[in-house]
Specification:
By secondary structure, the protein is mainly alpha-helical. Helices cover 67% and strands 0% of the residues. The mean pLDDT is 83.
Length: 88
C-alpha cells in the first residue's frame, strides 16, 4: 500500500458508524481500512464504467459501420441510465 499522506474528516450517523465498526471487526480491519476499501471500489467501478462505455461504442461502430453518425445526446442518456441503475 502507498504511504498514506492525506487526512480526511468524515461524519457518519450512529447507525452508519456502527455498521462500519461491525464490518471492520468481522474483517479484522480498522474502520479506516474499510472506508478506504469502499472508496477504492467506487473509483474502480467508475473506471470500469468508462471502459465499458468506450467498448460499447466501439462494438456498436464495428457491428454497424454504415449506420451513420452517432447521436451523442442519445448515447450519453443511455450510458447514464445504465450507470445510474446500480447506484443507491
Amino acid at each position: 500500500m502507498a504511504t498514506l499522506q492525506r487526512r480526511v474528516q468524515i461524519l457518519f450517523d450512529p447507525a452508519q458508524y456502527a455498521a462500519l465498526e461491525d464490518e471492520a471487526r468481522a474483517s479484522k480491519q480498522s474502520v479506516a481500512a474499510v472506508v478506504r476499501e469502499a472508496v477504492d471500489e467506487r473509483l474502480r467501478r467508475g473506471q470500469r464504467s468508462k471502459e465499458e462505455a468506450l467498448a460499447r461504442l466501439l462494438a456498436r461502430a464495428e457491428a454497424h459501420p454504415n449506420q451513420g453518425p452517432i447521436d451523442w445526446d442519445e448515447e450519453k442518456e443511455s450510458f447514464e441510465r445504465e450507470y445510474l441503475k446500480d447506484l443507491p
